[in-house]
Design goal:
Length: about 400
């Protein structure tokens, strides 16, 4: 069984070992060593990177035999002396993220009763899934700040981090945050005086080495609450980026960062008013255009003017336009608005002196295309394929009066 050196020293960056197995698989080499400082992917923490005898380590995993396997692009013959080098920046980043996970999980448990059920450390953001009391999948912004402040206060105090394998009797007496997932060789991590849980990951020796933890989001995910966060240099880079963007936005608005919310709110209100005014202008222009089109619209044998066309807008605009057009006697308005390439909404309406059942007309035109529509004799609404409008006009031109 591989001796896992990172259990005793998470800061170990180089070591010497002997190869005990080397298997060629899928164009790479899977190697076992008698001892290794490489952390294998497990517990939501990614594997370490580095080299073995100068060859890049592409992956590290725990095999079905329980041993640690290293995937490289060069063979390491059985019995060969092996020198390993750990990518320290990657290792330390993962140590910071994993300790940040424990501290956030502890705060969620102590302050809000949340039970952490999973961790995932990616290359940019780390996440933990939490089962909250009552099945809640969100917490308030104020609670997020409480948790964040609790964690960072302990970081500022630089509380100690201890990792060890307690004896069975000691393990039974420890106030673990949740029960271990394994029955033997249980490794415990304690951070300060109020966080203690079973964990096989790598961690810094004190919380102060995290520097900073920032919660980015707490949102629903698969029926639980997913907390996204960054720790250490990731949090520092996030602060740098956020600060730079805030200053850039403030300069564009000729104000200070502290005034950004008020300026953005004012811009939103100005935009809302401008959009309202523009929509009114477009509406008035469209209604005037339809009035002009009506003058040259084709007529049925009984003299009914039939205006059929698509307009830019929605169902509300169609209803308003149709209602305005049929104020005139002898008018039938068949209006549509495209809401997608293959779908449109329709409003068919007629003046009181026109003898056409608009609900029946729309229903008859829509049916061959799988559309839907219907309504009163003088006013109908529906939706479906763009071809419905031409079908309705063809019915009227053919002398059909549904």
């Amino acid at each position: 069984m591989t001796e896992r050196l990172y259990y005793d020293d998470a800061y170990l960056t180089s070591f010497d070992a002997a190869a005990t197995c080397c298997e060629a698989r899928d164009g790479a080499y899977h190697v076992k060593l008698d001892r290794s400082a490489f952390y294998p992917t497990s517990g939501g923490q990614p594997h370490d990177a580095g080299t073995l005898n100068g060859a890049p380590v592409l992956d590290v995993y725990v095999g079905e035999d329980g041993d640690v396997w290293h995937v490289t692009d060069a063979p390491l013959p059985v019995g060969a002396a092996v020198h390993g080098e750990i990518d320290w920046l990657r290792r330390f980043d993962h140590m910071q993220q994993h300790a940040g996970d424990h501290m956030i999980a502890s705060a969620l448990w102590r302050l809000l009763g949340g039970v952490t059920i999973g961790l995932h450390v990616s290359h940019d953001v780390s996440t933990i899934d939490v089962a909250m009391p009552g099945g809640a999948t969100r917490i308030s912004p104020g609670d997020i700040l409480r948790v964040e402040a609790d964690v960072n206060e302990r970081i500022q105090r630089d509380v100690p981090v201890r990792c060890w394998f307690p004896e069975p009797e000691e393990l039974k007496a420890l106030p673990l945050r949740k029960p271990p997932t394994v029955a033997e060789h249980v490794r415990v991590v304690a951070i300060g005086e109020d966080e203690m849980v079973a964990c096989g990951g790598t961690h810094p020796s004190t919380a102060g080495q995290l520097g900073l933890v920032k919660i980015l989001d707490a949102a629903p995910a698969r029926g639980k609450m997913r907390v996204s966060f960054v720790a250490g240099m990731r949090a520092f880079r996030d602060y740098q980026t956020s600060r730079a963007l805030a200053h850039e936005a403030a300069e564009l608005l000729s104000t200070g960062v502290e005034n950004l919310p008020a300026h953005v709110a004012a811009l939103q209100e100005a935009l809302r008013r401008a959009e309202y005014a523009l929509n009114r202008l477009r509406r008035d222009a469209l209604l005037e255009e339809l009035e002009r089109d009506l003058e040259t619209a084709p007529r049925l044998p009984d003299g009914t003017a039939v205006l059929g066309r698509f307009v830019e807008g929605d169902a509300a605009l169609l209803k308003e336009a149709a209602s305005r057009l049929i104020r005139r006697p002898g008018v039938a308005a068949l209006l549509g608005a495209r809401v997608a390439d293959d779908r449109a909404v329709y409003v068919f309406a007629r003046a009181q002196d026109v003898d056409i059942h608009m609900g029946s007309l729309l229903s008859a035109a829509a049916k061959p295309f799988g559309g839907k529509g219907g309504g009163r004799p003088d006013f109908a609404q529906g939706g479906g394929a763009p071809e419905i409008l031409n079908a309705a006009l063809a019915l009227l031109e053919g002398g059909e009066n549904p």
